[in-house]
Amino acid sequence: MGGARIASIFAQLVAHGRAPSTPVAVIENGTLPGQRVQVTDLGTPDTIAPSGDGPVLLIIGEVVRYHGATAPVGEVDATPSPRAGRAATDASGGDRG
């Protein structure tokens, strides 16, 4: 669906005022075992090669620069930090000191 029209979508966004340097993430089969993420910018749609066998989600804008800065789902350390415990005490009206 969207994968076949990526170049056209990018061109229309640039034609309507988005900078060619605007970052874009193309996510295929999001949340599935075969998820694939490709990052580029609006000026270089030819660097994206969708496989065409699943849904495509386009993320457009500065938020794309955070790709890779966070842990994937299922790999997050759920150990509470000491500060989190203190915040809970503070919020309940406990002693801050």
Textual characterization of the structure:
21% of the residues lie in helices and 18% in strands. It is an alpha+beta fold and 97 residues long. A hairpin with a 7-residue loop joins β1 (23-28) and β2 (36-41). The protein has two helices and three strands; from the N terminus they run αβββα.
What's the β-strand tally? 3
Strand order of the largest sheet: 2-1-3
In terms of structural class, how would the helical and strand content be classed?
A: alpha+beta
Q: Helix and strand succession?
A: HEEEH
Mean pLDDT: 77
Shape: globular
Total of helices: 2
Distance between the termini: 58 Å
Helix content: 10-25%
Percent of residues in beta strands = 15-25%
Using only CA atoms, what is the Rg? 20 Å
- Poorly predicted runs of 5 or more residues: 84-90
The gist of it:
The chain is an alpha+beta fold and 97 residues long.
Please outline the helices and strands.
Blueprint: H1 6-15, E1 23-28, E2 36-41, E3 56-60, H2 82-91
Antiparallel strand pairs: 1-2, 1-3
